[in-house]
Amino acid sequence: MKDYTSSLWGNKGVRITVIALLAAMAAVSLIQGIRNAAEFSQDFQWDAVKAFTMRINPYDESLDPSGVLDAYGFEDVYLQMEANQFPSLLVLLIPYTFLAPLTARYIWIVSNLVFTAGIIVLLGKTFLKTAKRDVFAAFMLLMIAGTPYRNQLGVGQHSLFAFFFFLLAVWFDEKEDRRVSFAGTVVCLFICYFKYTLTVPLCLYFIYKRRYARIAVSVLLHIMLTVISAWWLNDSVINMIIKPLKVSGALAGEGCLDFGVVLNGSKAAYVLAFAVLAVLFVLAFRLGENNENDYISVLTLWSLIITYHRIYDFFIIVIVLAFFLTKERSIYYKAGYGAVLAAVFFVLRLFSESPGSKLATGILYYVFTLAVTTTVIKEGVKSKTECKGAV
User: How far is it, in rounded angstroms, from Cα 370 to Cα 105?
Assistant: First the structure.
């Protein structure tokens, strides 16, 4: 099949038209996202963090409310408490609790806008640094124009926060000054685990880069904070792990395209997720040295489906553009990626995430993910073998 995409994009008029259209759509999406965030931001978890600072167990109040928090009127602003983050992660949001509930919401909106700008800058300095300027601009505008980003901003979710610090960790990791690189990477990894269902799979990238000490120290910091949190809440360390998982476990079958949805919340979804993670872990040691872009593309695609994720987390699939920067890909890959982007960013919203639209989008997504993964394994393992042979 002839590839018409390059020739079309090579037309200056087409490029200007597409970018102008995406800019207009991004502006509308951004404004609506801010409006929604100002009214809702129900996933911010300010209430859970505030309860934590008051030495009231937010997990117990989420699982079986005692009414002790009713007098504070938290639900007037944040509806219902759902403390599904580990205590060492809730600690990261404590600075926001020094503000009144509504003020904190507005500051969180501003924070997410800053994280958005940071994500764009960091993508341009890391995985997408070889993309042409017009292509990069188009993809960043597409990200903001899509439903996932708008919903992410509107519900006050934490993926922008976590993804920004993951990219910042990647940026620090590439610094020449070893002390600055180590310290910066550790701190950013420590923070990026806030949305662990998203960033822990992505952090396999640091296993691929053989940054074992950096990962170990960042995890150790969370272990230490978990122990301190258990003392602070007068609970056991085990409960500091089990209780957040109980809160989040109630949502296991309510995602968008993930294994939990496909398997109707069955425990088999966890087994399958573990198996995929194991394969991705092994793959980190099997790929050649110059497969960063391909590996992060694979990690991104799988990270969104192996555990619970709603549509608002899918804005990160713009990073899969990196797969197309390593070498020239056939029209089939480009068409597949385009179809996935269109379905996830616009079609699902157009059909209100109806069962039919989710089924069609899911099929597209899984087929594309498997195709990219298979190609990366074949090309990456082959390149490593050839490098060994050359030595």
Answer: 39
